[in-house]
Amino acid sequence: MKKSYSILILVQFLCFSLSLGGDTISVNVSVSSGQTIMSSGGNFELGFFRPGDSRSYYIGIWYKKLYPQEVVWVANRDKPLDSADANLIISRGNLVLVDRLQNSIWSALAGNINPNISVTALLRDDGNLILNDVSKASMPLLLWQSFDYPTHTFLPGAKIGYDKRTQRKQLLISWKNLSDPAPGLYSMEMDPTRAQIVVKWNRTREYWASGSWDGRTFSLVPEMRTNYIYNFSYIDNENESYFTYSLNNSSLTSKWMMDVSGLIKQQVWFYGNIDWNL
């Protein structure tokens, strides 16, 4: 009996060491190797991972409830870590990934940063990681969000767009290969001049276009008219142009992914499934 009790305590300790038990990173809570934070509803998890047979480490977000692991966002996709001895921390008003020598590998904010403000990073249940200024507890101010910097996956509520003020694009870029999330050869982006989505090779050569938005669908994607799962929207105003979507059924899990082969895959995971439906 004593031996069984000791094993139970060991298992509980290991489980505790693998999870921080919350959805927020703060000055007092950081994420190191083997630790994660999880969104409040348990849909997404953030932590360190190694893709495929890679020996490098990355900070990413993946579906918590689906197996095998499906990563939807990577922070340091072009700056891999050669060691798991690293930390994702709040430092001087910013969210920063530091290696074992405390060198900054990746940070959410660039440019002028106010080191005197109080910030927290929150992983939401839609998969969006947000950095808030919480100096005024009653009025948190959004400073940065991962939805503005997608990697290869387009989640409901995110945007594929173009900011007319900054000329910055929100686009999908494929992984280099299944073991390397570095930017690959294929991209999916907005062409605001023609109100359409385009897919490019090497960010220069267009090889597919959706056709212009007609108020309900993109003209060359007639399948959009027969869908019963999604609500599609195209917004064009003085500040930005973007395409976004939401789900009619909140119990479904869905994503668009820019595959390493250059294919855009629109996939749904129905409750009780063991794999994605294409």
Automatic annotation (TrEMBL):
Keyword Methyltransferase carried by entry: no
InterPro entries recorded: Bulb-type_lectin_dom, Bulb-type_lectin_dom_sf, S_locus_glycoprot_dom
Signal peptide: 1-21
Gene3D superfamilies the record matches: Bulb-type lectin domain
Alphabetized PANTHER family for the sequence: BULB-TYPE LECTIN DOMAIN-CONTAINING PROTEIN (PTHR32444), OS01G0958200 PROTEIN (PTHR32444:SF247)
Gene Ontology biological-process annotations: recognition of pollen
Keyword tags: Disulfide bond, Glycoprotein, Signal
One Pfam family named in its UniProt record: S_locus_glycop
Name recorded for this polypeptide: Bulb-type lectin domain-containing protein
Every Bulb-type lectin domain range: 22-144
SUPFAM superfamilies registered for this protein in UniProt: alpha-D-mannose-specific plant lectins (SSF51110)
